[in-house]
From TrEMBL:
4Fe-4S ferredoxin-type domain sequence ranges: 5-34, 42-71
Record PANTHER family: ADENYLYLSULFATE REDUCTASE, BETA SUBUNIT (PTHR43687), BLR5484 PROTEIN (PTHR43687:SF4)
Highest rank taxon of the organism: Bacteria
PROSITE patterns xrefs: 4FE4S_FER_1, 4FE4S_FER_2
GO molecular function: 4 iron, 4 sulfur cluster binding; metal ion binding
Pfam families, sorted: Fer4_7 (PF12838)
The keyword Phosphoprotein is annotated on this UniProt entry: no
InterPro entries given in the database record: 4Fe4S_Fe-S-bd, 4Fe4S_Fe_S_CS, Fe-S_Ferredoxin
Protein name: 4Fe-4S ferredoxin
The UniProt record lists the keyword NAD: no
Keyword annotations of the record: 4Fe-4S, Iron, Iron-sulfur, Metal-binding
């Protein structure tokens, strides 16, 4: 099962430059055209499932507007017989 991730974009800093959208290896990011921030930009968002939490979007964001969260998957321990 591939890792699962999610992002939180801070509307105060996101300027809708789309650098994160272009850099996303899973191609799951886009601009939220249904919203406009207080500064007048369409913020970045996840537009479909498939985020792995790789963090590339946060690294390329010039405004440090993206926080990435990744699900921690712990291996199952076999029960003693």
């Amino acid at each position: 099962m591939p890792p699962k991730g999610r992002i939180v974009v801070n509307d105060l800093y996101c300027k809708g430059c789309e650098l994160c959208v272009a850099a996303c290896p899973q191609e799951v990011m886009g601009l939220d055209m249904s919203r406009i921030t207080t500064k007048g930009y369409h913020p970045a968002t996840l537009i479909k499932e498939g985020c792995t939490g790789c963090g590339v979007c946060a690294v390329v964001c010039p405004e440090a507007a993206i926080t990435v969260y990744r699900e921690v998957v712990r291996p199952r321990v076999a029960a003693a017989a």
